[in-house]
Design goal:
Length: 126
């Protein structure tokens, strides 16, 4: 089993920055990709960004391209999401997720994630 723990989140003004981190523990050798999803009140959970754990290849939803950066530190066994130029529309609970699937086709799909964190709230005030 794998456990995911998110750190970060909080309240920030429009245009500000936050960094989220996610540290997996347990049988982490099974993880082939990690990513972030978010869910705003009254909306479905949506993909934000993903990264291949071995090669570091990255994928983003269009609305965060140029503002968010996903990265991972293999030595520290931690994944990060640097969020800059935040907007009120970014307000949501952000979830860390991990997948055992090798194909990047699945990395942006919530139903293809094998492990989830409990989520951390990001609030962007206008």
């Amino acid at each position: 089993q794998v456990q995911l723990v998110e750190i970060g989140g909080g309240l920030v003004q429009t245009g500000g920055s936050l960094r989220l981190s996610c540290e997996p523990s347990g049988r982490t050798f099974r993880i082939l990709s990690m990513g972030w999803f978010r869910q705003a009140p009254g909306k479905e959970r949506e993909f934000v960004a993903a990264i291949g754990w071995s090669l570091g290849n990255t994928y983003y939803i269009d609305s965060v391209k140029g503002r968010f950066t996903i990265s991972r530190d293999i030595a520290e066994n931690t994944m990060y999401l640097q969020m800059d130029k935040l907007r009120p529309g970014d307000t949501a609970v952000y979830y860390c997720a991990a997948s055992r699937r090798s194909s990047s086709y699945y990395w942006s799909r919530a139903d293809s994630q094998d492990y989830w964190g409990k989520g951390t709230l990001v609030t962007v005030s206008s």
